[in-house]
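queue> pop job 88
queue> type: inverse folding (structure -> sequence)
queue> payload:
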């Protein structure tokens, strides 16, 4: 079952069970996926949205909500921060498990070895290899400096 099919099935279940907050978040996910599909058709692509593209969409959605949580907490709007956290929990159900510190280090080492990277100029190749293999499992904002330290 593709990721899009899983999300659609969850949407139907949430409707049946009248889970209002969950349903709202699933509809936001579905809308983002449909927007991506429309954008792809506009570019002349005949294919649908791939699981990798959906994972990237979900990752962006989580990151946006994490930023909102910080802003709401700084502003003293704890009820809104809690709502964002609930949305993050629903979105993360569809993301693969995040790699921990040692797994991240191992993944970086493997990517450097696979690409034959030796200098900072090879960083792009290493990051591309990591993104191809670990989309949705790594925070690439945090991984970038780690790769830079290894190559620099």
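queue> result:
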């Amino acid at each position: 079952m593709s990721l899009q099919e899983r999300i659609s099935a969850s949407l139907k279940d949430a409707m049946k069970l009248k889970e209002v907050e969950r349903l709202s978040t699933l509809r936001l996910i579905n809308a983002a996926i449909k927007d991506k599909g429309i954008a792809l058709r506009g570019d002349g692509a005949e294919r649908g949205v791939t699981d990798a593209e959906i994972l990237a969409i979900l990752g962006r959605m989580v990151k946006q909500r994490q930023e909102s949580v910080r802003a709401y907490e700084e502003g003293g709007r704890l009820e809104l921060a809690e709502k964002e956290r609930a949305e993050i929990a629903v979105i993360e159900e569809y993301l693969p498990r995040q790699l921990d510190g040692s797994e991240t280090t191992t993944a970086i080492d493997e990517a450097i070895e696979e690409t034959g990277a030796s200098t900072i100029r090879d960083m792009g190749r290493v990051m591309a290899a990591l993104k191809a293999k670990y989309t949705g499992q790594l925070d690439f904002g945090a991984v970038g400096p780690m790769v830079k330290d290894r190559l620099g």
